[in-house]
Amino acid sequence: MTIKSFAYDNLKKLCLSLGKHNDALYAVLAIAMFKGIMRPTFTMMDKESDKDTKKYAAFREGLTEAIAFCSYIATHKLILPQGVRLAKYVNKNRPKELPNVSVRKVQNGLSLLSVCLTAGIIIPAVCNVVLKPVMDGVAKVMNKNKKDKTQKLDIKENVVQNVTVPTVYSPKLSENSKKLLAMVKTPVVANSSMKVGG
Amino acid sequence: MINTFVNAITSNTFQSIVQNTDACVKIETGLKAVGRPAFTLMDKHTDKETRKYAAVKEFIYQVLCFGIYIAVIPPIFKKGGFKLAQKIFKKEGLPAFKNAKQMLAYHDLAHMTPEERLRPDQKIQKLRDLITDDLVNPKDNNTKLIDYLLGPDKKGGLHKKTLEKQGKMFELAKGSIELSSIIGSVVGLTILAPEISHLILHPIMNALHLKGEPKEAKSPEEKTQILDKNA
């Protein structure tokens, strides 16, 4: 079997199976998986930021997409079996004139609902809860490693002992100036679990 | 209550949405545009202004993703993918449909019972209207297909049992449209959308007078916010 015919057969099989039954889960899983690979890769390729920052950002992006990927699968696995029960229950109480509800159709419908529930509620909620403590831990570890490295590099010989710190006089501000300064201050998006995209 | 719910999720409209990658991704992106900013606003770890900034940024990012998706995926990947499949699967007896829309109309009708296909319903009428057009090659089996679907000989028509044997070409074409839509979604939402929104997002945020990024970040978590603009 040549590579061409192997690829052709597999592509045909894949198209036939997607044509027969396409689940809402397939597309969202593919998106989450590729985002989990591509976004950290792009972040690591950014030449403007330093290595630690890139590592931190890439880890956070990867983690967000890993949470999304796992949430989609977990919700799907939890909700889909309920389709069998639901179909049985409905068919039991259904008038005899009406045709029975197909389990496959109920499961298909529940599959889309599980994707909606996960995308709209579960992923942002889990990210809000999980991302901040995990990333705080990562930041601590990174800072510790950085300190260890700088301590190793510290040269104690010929250290200037008495460094005179120039005194800085802060100007006295009028009430109006203080108000103006407060208006200029912008919110700092830092140390939070909130991120854009994903 | 449960009966109504089950009837709704097993209806033809809902089922065709489930089988359509394009519709599923649009719904998912739309929900992200609502859900993520809402949860960002609910996050009590940060102050009000920061939450507001992050929520607006997230909302605009998701809306941009949605727009980019609509602009890029159906015209390029859905149509292109179908044409490519027609070339690749020439041997499989795929009829020379004019476009993906026409093929999907055939596909949808093929999945209905013969009685449903002839029902005086507006949506079904639209599908029937599409299949009255000639195929690209009129010598192709257009008449045969119309006979399968709407012909007088309903016993020999294309329904459930015959679909398994003779309808593989429909499944193949439908599958190739879905596959190219999945590929398009991945390319659109993981490569194009972040890059394009990176160019558009910040001017919009500036126009809205919303500035929230630290100018001199020191710790990695602070600096990440600067990197986030690449998201």
Describe the structure.
- The complex is a heterodimer of chains A (198) and B (231).
- Chain A has a domain at 24-133.
- Helices cover 71% and strands 0% of the residues of chain A.
- Chain A has helices spanning 3-20, 24-45, 51-79, 82-92, 103-153, 175-184.
- The longest helix of chain A is centred in the middle third of the chain and has 51 residues, at 103-153.
- Chain A starts with a helix and ends in a 14-residue tail after the last helix.
- Mean pLDDT of chain A is 80; it is low at 186-193.
- Chain B is mainly alpha-helical and 231 residues long.
- Chain B has one domain.
- Chain B has helices at residues 2-9, 12-18, 21-42, 48-88, 100-110, 114-117, 122-131, 142-150, 160-166, 168-207, 220-227.
Jot down its keywords.
heterodimer, A: 198 residues, mainly alpha, 6 helices, extended, B: 231 residues, 11 helices, globular
Helix content of chain A: over 70%
* Rg of chain B, nearest Å: 24 Å
Overall number of domains of chain B:
1
**Number of helices, counting only DSSP H or I runs of 4 residues or more of chain A:** 6
Total number of helical segments of chain B? 11
Beta-strand segment tally of chain A: 0
What letter string, H or E per element, gives the SSE order of chain A? HHHHHH
Q: Summarize model confidence as the mean pLDDT of chain B.
A: 75
Based on helices, strands and strand pairing, what is the structural class of chain A?
mainly alpha
